[in-house]
Amino acid sequence: MTASASIRHDWTHQEVQDLLSKPFNDLIFEAQQVHRTHFNPNEVQVSTLLSIKTGACPEDCMYCPQSGHYNTGLEKEKLMEVQKVLDEAKAARETGATRFCMGAAWRSPTKKDLPYVLEMVRGVKEMGLETCMTLGMLTEEQATELSEAGLDYYNHNLDTSERYYNQIITTRTYQDRLDTLENVRNAGMKVCCGGIMGMGEDEADRAGFLMELANLPEHPESVPINLLIKIPGTPLENVEDLDPIEFVRTIAVARILMPKSHVRLSAGREDMTDEMQALCFMAGANSIFYGDQLLTTDNPEADADRRLFERLGIRPEPLATDRSDEDEAAELTERVEQERQSHLFYDAANA
Ligand code: SF4
């Protein structure tokens, strides 16, 4: 596979596993090539995430402090008032976020709650922010209502490989998740879908997970790759740490398989050194959550993010609507030309 190869949806498990186990430098080189073909390598999309309803979730996801099945000491909260959500969105916009993600710990939204959620979507959208929600499983009708209210993205993760899935969640099936993703797509929304690494899965599971994502009929526009945060009280609190290099490899392969998707460095970032985050950006991650909170777990302070961006010469990606197609095409051509002239990469394998 080279940077110019076309977008594929027919990856085999073996192909993905071969990518995951490539020599590290070759893998990062390939991921950078793909990344630079489709994105400005020095821009990272910035989202802010707010928990609009916390805890007491009926699902049993074994990593999650919000599951009502485990005692993690998390304070439960009812659905947040619409105005409070809008105030938070306004504050997020002022700190430079272009997308506002709202998460509720539900199996799926209820009839009673959905009208409030729709109001939140309309209000946040009116501020000029992109909107994203994660509310659990959606029926076709619910997906359509959310889409009509102006919801741009819906987040629903596959979490892991199909094979490992029932070690992690028993209250909903892999197929349930695929069905929700299909309902979201059919309603015309963009898909945010990824998973969590370091839950005790092996490399074959990470390959299976990436293959599932890459072989969806359309690649998710946003692919969050999380590193497990081990929460005391959850069944995964003592699971063995994932080798950080394996995590970076997962990011790189996600980038190669889904060249046009934003790969998001998501939960677990607060446990990463700046150097590890820099490696992830090099491997093709180009989206982060920014701010004080990542749903219920700590997120690195916003100032630390700003400092890291400065040190790496990274700037927040502007909203896509800020640029015309012509501007984007011109920028891409210029970048390709600059790279060709600077011989930034010397590909020893092909020399
Ligand atoms: S991950 Fe979502 S669905 Fe699973 S327990 Fe947590 S809040 Fe509920």
CATH superfamily label: Aldolase class I
Shape call: globular
Radius of gyration in whole Å, from Cα?
Answer: 20 Å
Structural class: alpha/beta
Spatial gap, N to C terminus: 17 Å
Biggest sheet layout:
10 strands, parallel
Bound molecules: iron/sulfur cluster
Number of domains: 1
How much helical structure, as a percent, in the residues? 25-40%
Pathway: Cofactor biosynthesis; biotin biosynthesis; biotin from 7,8-diaminononanoate: step 2/2
Domain Radical SAM core: 42-269
Cofactor: [2Fe-2S] cluster; [4Fe-4S] cluster
Catalytic activity: (4R,5S)-dethiobiotin + (sulfur carrier)-SH + 2 reduced [2Fe-2S]-[ferredoxin] + 2 S-adenosyl-L-methionine = (sulfur carrier)-H + biotin + 2 5'-deoxyadenosine + 2 L-methionine + 2 oxidized [2Fe-2S]-[ferredoxin]
